[in-house]
Amino acid sequence: MKNILETHNLCKNYKKQKANHNISISLPEKSVYGLLGPNGAGKSTLLKMLTGMITPTSGEIVFDGKSWSRNDLLSIGALIESPPLYENLTARENLKVRTLLYGLPDSRIDEVLECVDLINTGKKRAGHFSMGMKQRLGIAMALLNHPKLLILDEPTNGLDPIGIGDLRELIRAFPQQGITVILSSHILSEVEQIADHIGIIANGELWHQDKIDATDDLEALFMEVVRKAGDSNA
């Protein structure tokens, strides 16, 4: 299976602190990749490098078979931290701002609203949306430019069980639409239900990467990997 994204010995240093160190991940095309790790492990730093928000100190990112460049952002959608919404605008108006930016037709607005189940929000302003609706609108924004890769940083943070369930179904459907997803989380049970592959980061390093097997005890694996990482840094 072809990899849509690879990193080779990717590093990000802040003065003397190594936020990411020699991270090499592989994302198979049309799959969901769960990036697991404790809070502060370096997950967000990695995802921000993949979206061009921060520049790697060293190493290489390969996207769709060639060295990553800023032009690749046209094929990458991302929701990092909270959705970048105009709270005084409706869902449709928020998306209209983006279609003008990308030079996309208005028909794309209905397509992504349908995809995230926000087609019937009418004149309701985004500021009055529930947390789950805001997350879905953020994902709709990330989908506008027909991305090959969708990057989601802790997408279920702050959601109630219904919102988490809705988002889970939405994410699971993306590979069938030709979209590869990488999402970060520290909630093991969620990743277990969504992901095809996982990578476990601790102390800024990738300690484990593999396909998820239905027989795996993800919690036991996670604890073992994080403990090993802690022992090596003791």
Automatic annotation (TrEMBL):
<feature type="domain" description="ABC transporter">
    <location>
        <begin position="5"/>
        <end position="228"/>
    </location>
</feature>
<dbReference type="Pfam" id="PF00005">
    <property type="entry name" value="ABC_tran"/>
</dbReference>
<dbReference type="InterPro" id="IPR003593">
    <property type="entry name" value="AAA+_ATPase"/>
</dbReference>
<dbReference type="InterPro" id="IPR003439">
    <property type="entry name" value="ABC_transporter-like_ATP-bd"/>
</dbReference>
<keyword id="KW-0547">Nucleotide-binding</keyword>
<protein>
    <submittedName>
        <fullName>ABC-2 type transport system ATP-binding protein</fullName>
    </submittedName>
</protein>
<comment type="similarity">
    <text>Belongs to the ABC transporter superfamily.</text>
</comment>
<dbReference type="GO" id="GO:0005524">
    <property type="term" value="F:ATP binding"/>
</dbReference>
<dbReference type="InterPro" id="IPR022501">
    <property type="entry name" value="ABC_Gallidermin_ATP-bd"/>
</dbReference>
<dbReference type="GO" id="GO:0016887">
    <property type="term" value="F:ATP hydrolysis activity"/>
</dbReference>
<dbReference type="InterPro" id="IPR027417">
    <property type="entry name" value="P-loop_NTPase"/>
</dbReference>
<keyword id="KW-0813">Transport</keyword>
<keyword id="KW-0067">ATP-binding</keyword>
